[in-house]
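User: I'm putting together a teaching handout on how multi-component assemblies are represented. Below are the sequence lines for each component of a complex, exactly as they appear in our records. Could you produce the 3D structure of the whole assembly as C-alpha cells, so the students can see both representations side by side? Please keep the chain order the same as the input.
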Amino acid sequence: MTTTNRNTSLITLAFALVLWFMPSVRETLDFPVFFLLFGYSLFFWIAQASSWNTFTGFSGYFSFGQGAFFGAGVYSVAVLAVKRDWPLLFTFLVGGLVAAVIGLIIGVVVFRLRKLRGEIFALMTLAVAFVMASVARVSPAIDGGQGVPVNTVELPEFLGDFPTMIFRLGLIVATFAVITAQSVQRSRLGWGLFSIRDDEDVAETLGVPTFRFKITALLLTAFIAGISGAIHSLQIGYVTIEDVFSIRVPLFVILMSILGGTKHWMGPVVGAVVVVTLNDRLNRAGFQEISDLITGGLLILMIVAVKEGLYLRMRARPLRTAVGFTAGLVIGFALGALDESLITLVAYGLGIAVLAVMLPLSWFARSEPAVTDDVEEVASHG
Amino acid sequence: MADLRFTGIGKRFGGVRALDGVDGHVDEGEILGLVGPNGSGKSTLINVLSGHYAADDGSITYGEANLTDLPPHRIIETGLARTYQIPRPFSTMTALENVSVPFMFGANPLSPQTARESAMEWLAFTGLDSLANEPIDSLNLHQLKYLELARALAARPKLLFLDEVLSGLNPTEITASIEMVRRIHSSGITIVIVEHLVRVVTELASRIMVLDRGKVIADGDPTLVMQDDAVVTAYLGKRSKRAEG
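Assistant: Of course. Below is the structure of the complete assembly, with chains in the same order as your input.
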C-alpha cells in the first residue's frame, strides 16, 4: 500500500485549474471542438471509475450498484428538471443525494447481515438496478417506458456553449471524485477499508468500525456517481431505461478500475484514460461494431498479464513506460496519426506504453521456473 | 480494579456445544494459562471473550464495562486484545502497515503517519524491524506469529490473549518467546496464554485453568492443577477409554 499526501491533492487541483481554461484557449490553439467532448468523456469515466473504486477497490466489496447510482442521477434530472422545471444545477445535487439515499438503504440492509458478503453482496447490488429500471418503466411520473428528452431543458447561460459547459461540469466532478479517493486513501477511513478488504473479522476485533466505514464509503461512491450521472443526462440527450440501466456503466467502471489497479486512487484514472482513448480511436477508425469486443479482449489480456494493475506496474517500471510511450508517439507520427488527430497520436503512445509494461515481465515470470527445472535436471544427472 | 469476569458462557456450533456454562475470571496483573486437549474449547473461549464470536449464553464484564453485547470494535477500546492461533495478517499490506492499523483505532486513535512511527517500535520489540517494508508473503511462520503479537500489542492492550502464539516454533525460538512474553507482562499487561506445550505454561503461568469438552475441570496453582486426576485423564485418557480420546 502506498501513501499519498496533501500535496498530491494540491497538484490535482492545480492540474484541474489548468484544464478549466482549456475551452477559453481552444480556438487560439486551433483545437477542434471535439477535444472538449472527448475531454468530457474522460472526465465522466474518471469520475465513475474513481467513485466505484473508493468503495469497492478499497473495501473489497464487489458492487454492481454503479448502474443504480448513475441511473438515479440521470433520472433525477429527467424527472425534476425536464418534467417539473426545477433549476438544472440544483437537480444535479438532488441526483447525488438520491443516489446516496439508495446507497444508504442498500448498505443498512446488507451490511447488517454478516452473512451477506462476497457474491451475495454483488448480486444484491445488481438486483437494485433491475428493480429501479422496472419501477421507472411502469411509472409515468419517472419514465413510463417512453424515454425523456433531456435536450429540451434550458441550460444556464453563464456556463457558456454546450461543449464548454459539459467539459467544465465533468471536470469539476472528476476532480472531486479523484480528490475524494486520495483523501480516503491516506486517511483512517482508507486504512480501515483496506483492512476490511484483507480480513474483515480481524479488522473489526482490532477496532475498525467496519459497519460505519462501509456505509461511509458506499455513500461517497453513490453521491459522486449520482452527480456524475445527472450531468451525463445532458450528454445523452434523450434518456431511455434500456440505455441508462444497461450493464455498460457498471461493467466499464469495473474493467477500468481493475485494469488500472484497485489499490491506488491513480489506478482507475489510468484505466479510464487508456480504455476511453483506445475505445474512441477504434470507433473513429470504423470498428464501431466490434470496438467493445476488441476493447474487452484487450482488457482480459491485460488484466491477466498485469494483476496489480497498470498504474503500479508503470510506476515500478517508469523507464519502460516512458520509452514505450515515446516509441508509440514516434510510430504513430510516422504512420501519419497526427494528420487525423492529436488524440490518435496519444492513443498510439498509450497503446505501446501499455504493451511495453505488460509483455516483457510476463515473459520473465514464465522463464523463472524454467531455470529451476534446468538446475534440477543438472542435479539429477550429476 | 480491572478484572475480567465471565459467567455461564455458552457457545454452540450446530449441535456441538463448544462451550457449556464456562465461569471464570482473569485478575489484573496475572498470567493465566488456559490449557486442555484439542477441541476442549480454549480458542472458542478466547474468540468469545475478545468479541470475535458472540456468546449464545452468559455475560462478560471487564472492570466497569459490560462486554456482553458490545460490538467487537468497541471491546478493544476497553483494553482487550488477542492474537490468532493461525496468523491472520492483512495480506496486501507490509509488515509495518499491519502493525500500524491498530494504532489508528481503539481508545486513542493516531493519525496514519504517527501510527507508522509507533508501529516501528513494536516491530523492533518483536525483532521484525528489518522486515518492516516487506510484503506479508515473504514472512515465514515464526515471523508471522511475531507479527500477530506486534499487531495485538499495537492495540495498546491492558489484557492480552495469546492463542498458541508459540506453537510450531523450535526450542530455541520458544525460549526466546517465553522471555518476550515475560517482558510484555512486566510492562504491565495482564496475559491469558493458550498453549499445548506444558513446559511453556508451567514456566509462565501464575494460575492455570483447564478446559475439557467445553467445561472448566480445574482452576488453580499450576503444579497442583497439572497433577489433578481429572486433568491427567483429560490429557492422557484412562487406559480403557484411550481409543475415544
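A couple of points students might notice: Chain A touches chain B at residues 1, 3, 186-188, 190-192, 194-195, 197-199, 201-211, 263 (CB under 8 Å). Residues 282 and 369 of chain A are 38 Å apart (CA to CA).
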